[in-house]
Amino acid sequence: MNDLDFIQKTRAERWVYDLDNQQHIFQYTFIPTFKESANLDKSVYFTNFLIWTGKVRELALAEIGVQLADDLATGHWGLVTNWADLKIINEVFSYQPILAIFRIGKVFNSVIPLTCEFYKVVSDELKLIAVVGQETTWVEIIGHGKVKPAMFPDYLETYLDKTKQRLDVLNHLHKEKGVFSDPVVGKSLFHPPVLPSGFNIAESGKFITTLEDANLVGNVYYANYFIWQGRLRDGLIHKVAPQYFKGNGHLGAFVCTHAHLDYLRDAMPFDTILVTLSFQEIAINQIVLRYEYFRELDNGNKEKLAIGQHTSSWVTHTEDSKAEFSPIPDEIMTALLDKVDFSQHKISA
């Protein structure tokens, strides 16, 4: 079976040896369907890349999966996410075959760096869609939502030694050009040098977690934090310009090109999570958002769980359906700037 036959199957997986980087990598091919294609232009919504990364990561562990799942199910051991980062380079739509390439980075102490690249097939060639980077730590669970780094069990250390990155530099296609790879950012209208916690909150929401939000480890799954990013962003834009959410996005829409999260501590099922959205930058054709995540405590105080950043660009489509960056419409820009307190910050030149 050649590579293109493999990639265009409905679903397949395999380990292969990457000669350029001198390591084994995991390949998984699948086809996105209706549920994932939630952007107004019917392309795949950004959170799915984080969800897919989790699935591919765990499928790659199938060789030790039963033993690993048994350890995690004890409630004494876990894998927690330190940070996650998403860069989107190109659009992808339903029924376009996707190849995910998963690789383990240079392991240090109890920390495991991970990368998952997503490609689509275009004219019998692979085109990079998105890259997710992530760092996880093997931990001992010492209390409800409390962990400390721990030594790898022997079977996990053996598995990581076989698959981890050998070279200091990865020779892959992260520099590949795409629709969203090199955005031309227009004039910045608001860009404070420092954004203190709680400053210029434009939107907030509370989310009560349940078992549906958790996973085998027992904590709230890392991708939920990105889902909450999308809900607040979409809710804010819908409040100020609901007319843009009608139809198929022919008027244009905000599309995520980058999202990042730093996790400080775990959220757990049945926590009440407060998420706030602030503007870190408003430019002619994109917005950069800052998110803060808090657990509401019984005594009325808040405990910070995570900090996030999100970049969305205003995207329209040409007559031949090609995506391109465009200025944010005046009515939306006016509404967004009305959310900003300029009393402490000047408009950038």
Note the main attributes of this structure.
about 350 residues, alpha+beta, Thiol Ester Dehydrase, Chain A, 2 domains, globular
How far the N terminus sits from the C terminus, by CA atoms, comes to 57 Å
Note the quaternary state here: single chain
CATH class type of the largest domain:
Alpha Beta
User: What is the name of the CATH superfamily of the largest domain?
Assistant: Hotdog Thioesterase
Our estimate of the beta-strand percent is 35-45%
CATH topology of the largest domain: Thiol Ester Dehydrase, Chain A
Structural class comes to alpha+beta
**What's the overall geometry?**
globular
Rg result? 21 Å
Count of alpha and pi helical runs: 6
Mean pLDDT: 88
H and E order: HEEHHEEEEEHEEHEEEEEH
The count of strands amounts to 14
Describe the biggest sheet? 14 strands, antiparallel
CATH architecture of the largest domain: Roll
Helix content range: 10-25%
Domains, number: 2
Description:
The model has no long low-confidence stretch (mean pLDDT 88). This protein is of the alpha+beta class and 349 residues long. It has 6 helices and 14 strands. It folds into 2 domains: 1-181, Thiol Ester Dehydrase, Chain A, CATH 3.10.129; 183-349, Hotdog Thioesterase (Thiol Ester Dehydrase, Chain A), CATH 3.10.129. Strands 1, 2, 3, 4, 5, 6, 7, 8, 9, 10, 11, 12, 13 and 14 form a 14-stranded antiparallel sheet that branches.
Explain briefly what this protein structure is.
The chain has helices at 3-7, 47-60, 65-73, 154-163, 223-240, 330-337; strands spanning 12-18, 23-30, 77-88, 98-104, 111-122, 125-143, 146-149, 188-190, 201-208, 253-263, 272-283, 286-296, 302-317, 323-325. It has 349 residues and is α+β, with helices and mostly antiparallel strands.
